[in-house]
């Protein structure tokens, strides 16, 4: 029994590394990193704006785990391409709005940094929404 587990383990590792090297894996990992940096910057200067980043961080980690473990074909009651598109599209709009509000208010350096990172996250989420848009054929 231990031999069969050892033989199946490299297949799992190959699947994980293949996803992490794919475009979607890189985008999700970058979204997680940007959300984490924005949460840190907002928690220092303007904690009232950090809830958006916390929610998007949780959702990005959730989708990252679902796609990395290859659970999306097994859970069929959710339309994963459309839910991922809606997540990234709404995140892009909310990050754009929040970043503009934060940058107009001016303030502490970490608040300006969070606003600038929010604009970069807007581009990242927007690109991810464009890439994952499930076109009906």
UniProtKB/TrEMBL annotation:
Its main location: membrane. Keywords: Membrane, Transmembrane, Transmembrane helix. Residues 19-137 form the MARVEL domain. It is a multi-pass membrane protein. Coiled coil: none annotated. One of its GO terms (cellular component) is membrane. The chain crosses the membrane at residues 26-46, 52-73, 85-106, 112-133. The keyword Membrane applies. The keyword Transmembrane applies. It is found in: Membrane. InterPro entries: Marvel (IPR008253), MARVEL-CKLF_proteins (IPR050578). It holds the Pfam family MARVEL. May play a role in cell differentiation in the intestinal epithelium. PANTHER family: MARVEL-CONTAINING POTENTIAL LIPID RAFT-ASSOCIATED PROTEIN, PROTEOLIPID PROTEIN 2. This is Proteolipid protein 2. It comes from Equus asinus.
